[in-house]
Amino acid sequence: MSRIPFVSWSWKEGRVWDHWMIVHFASGIAIACVLELLSLDTAHAYLIALGLLVAWEIGEKIGRVEEETENLVLDVVFGMFGFALFEQVIFPLVSREGVVWILITTLIFAIGGSVLGWMAYKRRSE
Q1: Fewer CB atoms near the end CB (10 Å): N or C, the chain?
Q2: CB 110, CB 23: distance < 8 Å
Q3: What is the DSSP letter of 5?
Q4: CB 29 within 8 A of CB 37
């Protein structure tokens, strides 16, 4: 049995939930905003979003971030959920200016969360 808990309510890894899921969700939203502002068609936007989220996970592996397979897959799923929610539900309701504000807000949140999460990870791994 894995030593990683099923759920973590902190930056410590959980197999199916931890604070990183919020960062991945926000990253999916930020990707959606950029692709919306670039006016890409839906099919290409989905493929690019999936590629970027998978590349993030590959980058984590290159950076020697160890995580359970369930967690890795769910990181991509949460990112794609954020992307799809905004692509399909939110963007039809907001102006282009609204998309820019969502992007700015989401980037601040995603980058801030990434910094906090990375600092917590480095403290644990030292």
Answers
A1: N
A2: yes
A3: -
A4: no
